[in-house]
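Think of the structure tokens as a kind of shorthand, similar to the way a musician reads notation: each symbol stands for something richer, in this case the local conformation of the backbone. In the example below we present two proteins back to back. Begin with the first one, reading the sequence and then the tokens, and try to describe in your own words what changes along the chain.
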Amino acid sequence: MGLRKKGTKNPPVLSQEFILQNHADLVSCVGMFFVLGLMFEGTAEVSIVFLTLQHSVVVPAEELAAGSKTLYHYGVKDLATVFFYMLVVIIIHATIQEYVLDKISRRMQFTKAKQNKFNESGQFSVFYIVSCIWGTIILMSENCLSDPTLLWRTHSHTMMTFQMKFFYISQLAYWFHGFPELYFQRIRKQDIPSQLIYIGLHLFHITGAYLLYLNHLGLLLLVLHYFVELISHLCDVFYFSDEKYQKGVSLWTIVFVLGRLTTLVVSLVTVGLHLVVSHSRDGDTDSISGNVNVLAAEIAVLSSSCTIQAYITWTLLTVWLQRWLEDSNLQASSLKKKKPMIKGRSSRKGTENGVETANRVDAPPKRKEKTS
């Protein structure tokens, strides 16, 4: 089915314009090949690698507090699963764009610049809402909120539950889909470097938490980070819809600062306690289990966490400084437009274009020369 409305002119098949207009249809056809592969015995084993989670381990129920019998490791086959769900994310992205954001943009009659910002904030808002709700449900179901020691206890981090692994696979799929979307959405060349940095930082930290078995810590930090970003993009959506919400947009800075501080505190406390617990036990047994107990790795986790917080804070300051300069320039230009009107009125009372005339009241009258 078509996810985007076609133009009046049909572009040539497989041309650049054709791919941009029909990229969701093309991607859905690729995804259907993997789904149809389940129907045949020869291709079912390959299709399962793309559609379902791999690297499962059957554990006796009496050894697990949660009572689950299947846990998961990570492995190379996860790349195939991430690729398939990246295709799914591209289709969902195009569906939201056409049936929700494009209709709102046409109704509000945004300019091209505002429309691009509105589309970006709208897409991120949907993603952050789903991720925050989903991540909170996982934290509650795995008792991370009632028992915070799960964040640094070493023995529970060597394997993942189904919902934990599927959450990370979905997160990786979403951020990887950002690379082809730079082409599909026709992002300007000057905006591509900042977009690549933004996507790359998220992929780096999510992949690090996934590979280093810091699943619960990474999930908690992601929920905190996504909540702050959600407030930011929702404020942008309201601001683009009506500029009278400009004063309300500044209120989210309080949430931003609190979110950054909470993220740093949780990272420091969790990694510090993890170091204490891991080094109080035999280092060899922990390293064999695949857990993170090396001092260099712990310092790298703290450094990366502090780096991302510093980068996001610097980006916020840059955006707010740019907005402040734009507002000050608008005020200055409006004042310049009012000054000529004031000077024009004062010329009627003895001045012309700001220069005094000779017919002022206090000017001495000129004497007439006598003619002989």
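Once you have a description of the first chain, move to the second and do the same.
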Amino acid sequence: MENEQHDGLARRRVLSLLTLTVPAVALSGAVSGGAEAAAARGGAVPFRKGKALLGSYLSLRGRTLTESLALRRRQLGREQRIVHRYYPWSGYAPLAEPEVPASAVLMVSWDGTTHKRITSGRSDKNIALMANRLAGMKRPIMLRWAWEMNGNWFAWDGAHNGKKPAGYIRSWRRIHRIFRDEGAANVAWVWAPNWNSGPDVSWNRFENYYPGDDYVDWVGVSGYNFSKESPRTLFSPIVSAYGKRKPIVLAETAAIGHGRGTKAPWIRKLSAYVKETPSVGAVVWFDTDRQKGTSRNFRPDSDAEALAAYRRMARSARFSG
């Protein structure tokens, strides 16, 4: 999502894992096919065939994260399996996330910077600090670094870096190497473009930014129904391109209403789409009523019908990861 949408939100905010204190969700993938088979897809956060993790970014007006988690627990009768947080590029590298339950995977969307600041080596100490802090949390973490790189609204996108996606790839690989050298084996790497490119030109196609299979554990995608797009329209291009090689996480998604009674049908379409798309292993709802500068409300409980549809989705077997 664009900077203006995150402004004010973001700042308020496998085998090696067996030696760590890891919540059950990280190890449950080893039940079928052995630990090595489970770790082969998804890295430190294993992909489980037929089971999608369901979680959210939670920022509800007047509530702390702990209070927001409790509200959703009461409404849905279940816990969040992913809790999504936003970290700035520098100046904030937490030692722990005490409000995030031990049973949940922490998904961190970590800001980037210009490609040159990374590829030159000037940011190596900052990268190593974050690697050490995340490793020290001793929990499975999905790291979504520099998302929506095929847009034109972030400092790390191609439009702000000379229209040269290769710089993004070199940056990603350098960060990946530093995390490996610092022993951050609990981090699963999530590469996550926007569902469509802006500008929509050949050099800015999402595939031009892909760091390579050896550097990516999950492929993510951001997509909202701002213009009444269906889940299939939003997510099928990414699924078609990578779903046979990598598990897919719908890393940022939600529905806004387009008139009375329109949010629930979209949620039902999302549920159906995930059920018929086996490569989708996680869905992360952007659950907030705080989008700056607009009247958009992403909450799944904005009306009773929407909440009922979301509850049915959350309680279905497909979303029991």
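Compare your description with these statements about the second chain. The longest strand covers residues 280-288.
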